[in-house]
């Protein structure tokens, strides 16, 4: 992936496009939910922001807290009314290291209310911050 431009988590916006290339550290994983497809939610972060990341199927067991992950062609969109970053059908995620990455836990990009841009209906803009931190993964202090 030489020469690819990585997006900071603070710069991601909701979109139907699958083109987010970024890297982050997994901070925490929620329990796995077994429905038609196995899924679990993780709290991930980089040095600019945090976000909820949706893991599917074998990804739920492949990644743990402390893993540094590269996402290629990811998507930031709604899944069951929650705004999550995910690999989607065309994206890939791979572990590229562990434990040695600076990060912040706020702002959490999944805890921001987004609305259509009045000047461009194909884009979204931040309306309000729902919570400064993750309500699914509360601060541990």
Automatic annotation (TrEMBL):
Alphabetically ordered keywords of this record: DNA-binding
GO biological process assignments: double-strand break repair via homologous recombination; mitotic G2/M transition checkpoint; response to ionizing radiation
UniProt protein name: OB domain-containing protein
InterPro entries (alphabetical): NA-bd_OB-fold, SOSS-B
Molecular function per GO: DNA binding
Entry's Gene Ontology cellular component terms: chromosome; SOSS complex
Entry-linked SUPFAM superfamilies: Nucleic acid-binding proteins
Organism annotation: Jatropha curcas (Barbados nut)
Domain of life: Eukaryota
Keyword Endoplasmic reticulum appears in the UniProt entry: no
């Amino acid at each position: 992936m030489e020469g690819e431009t990585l997006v900071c988590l603070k710069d991601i916006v909701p979109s139907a496009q699958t083109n987010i290339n970024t890297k982050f550290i997994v901070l925490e994983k929620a329990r796995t939910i077994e429905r038609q497809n196995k899924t679990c939610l993780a709290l991930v972060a980089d040095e600019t922001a945090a976000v909820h990341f949706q893991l599917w199927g074998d990804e739920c067991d492949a990644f743990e807290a402390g893993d540094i992950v590269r996402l290629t062609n990811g998507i930031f969109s709604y899944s069951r009314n929650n705004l999550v970053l995910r690999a989607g059908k065309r994206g890939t995620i791979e572990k590229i290291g562990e434990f040695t990455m600076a990060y912040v836990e706020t702002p959490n990009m999944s805890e921001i209310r987004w609305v259509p841009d009045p000047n461009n209906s194909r884009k979204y803009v931040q309306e309000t911050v729902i919570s400064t931190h993750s309500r699914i993964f509360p601060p541990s202090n």
